[in-house]
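Dear H.,

Thanks for agreeing to be a second pair of eyes. The structure we're designing against is below in token form, covering all 176 positions.
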């Protein structure tokens, strides 16, 4: 039991050290000076081409160097991206939980399956269409008589039905 706790502590410490190092390297490599340094390396490589008769070894130096740097940067970038996505998700979750009237289920939306996300997306689209129709109703001028009221209400009902039908068609197409 103590051995497992020590392993967990060491793993957590290693993760923290790697994360700090990845953040520092990502910050440094994203700096304009780093880009200029990389350009200088390429220029030096190009200038030394005639001295090495543009040999296979001369070409291998730049190819090997860029391949190694690219390979290592993939892991550093993925680490920083994972961390950034998690921090943004946590901030958004906190905002959702703090908003009065917001649905708490949106705070943990990243844990849903693709099907559940699609259902929630369809539901949100339907709510958005209803809100849009409500806004359009409020913007339209008040009708002068009862016949005009029937036409306006009928037009909005037709638009809502069309929006619902369109949403259902998209949902059916996504599920096939």
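And this is the sequence the design step returned. I haven't edited it by hand at all.
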């Amino acid at each position: 039991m103590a051995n497992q706790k020590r392993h967990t502590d060491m793993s957590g410490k290693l993760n923290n050290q790697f994360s700090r190092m990845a953040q520092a390297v990502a910050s440094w490599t994203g700096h304009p000076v780093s880009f200029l340094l990389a350009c200088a390396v390429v220029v030096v490589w190009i200038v030394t081409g005639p001295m090495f008769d543009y040999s296979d070894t001369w070409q291998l130096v730049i190819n090997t160097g860029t391949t190694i740097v690219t390979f290592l940067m993939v892991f550093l970038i993925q680490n920083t991206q994972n961390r950034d996505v998690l921090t943004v998700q946590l901030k958004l979750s906190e905002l959702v939980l703090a908003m009065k009237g917001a649905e708490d289920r949106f705070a943990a939306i990243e844990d849903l399956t693709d099907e559940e996300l699609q259902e929630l997306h369809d539901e949100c689209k339907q709510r958005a269409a209803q809100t849009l129709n409500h806004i359009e109703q409020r913007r339209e001028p008040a009708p002068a008589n009862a016949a005009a009221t029937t036409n306006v209400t009928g037009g909005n009902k037709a638009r809502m039905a069309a929006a619902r039908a369109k949403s259902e068609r998209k949902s059916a197409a996504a599920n096939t």
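Two observations from my side: The helical segments are 2-29, 32-47, 56-98, 114-139, 146-175. Residues 148-152 have pLDDT under 50 and may be disordered.

Warmly,
E.
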